C-alpha cells in the first residue's frame, strides 16, 4: 500500500511551502530595508546620489526575484 508514501510526500510539501513563505517574508523585509538605504543615498548630495541610484536599480532587480518567488506559493 502506498498511502504512507503519499502522506510523507504531503507532509514534506507542506513543510516546503511553509519554508518558502518564511523565505519570502524575510526577503520582503530585507528589500524594504535595502530600499530605505537606497532612498537615503539617492537623496544625498554628491557622488552618494549616484550610489543611491545604483542601489535602487539593484533593489528593483531583487524585487523581480521576490515576485518570481511569490509565484511558487
UniProtKB/TrEMBL annotation:
Question: Which part of the chain is the IMD domain?
Answer: 1-73
The name of this protein is IMD domain-containing protein
* GO cellular component terms, semicolon-separated: actin cytoskeleton; cytoplasmic side of plasma membrane
Superkingdom of source? Eukaryota
Q: What Pfam families does its record include?
A: IMD
As one GO molecular function, the record gives: actin binding
Task: List GO BP terms, alphabetically.
Answer: cell projection assembly; plasma membrane organization
InterPro entries found in the cross-reference section: AH/BAR_dom_sf, I-BAR_dom, MTSS1/MTSS2
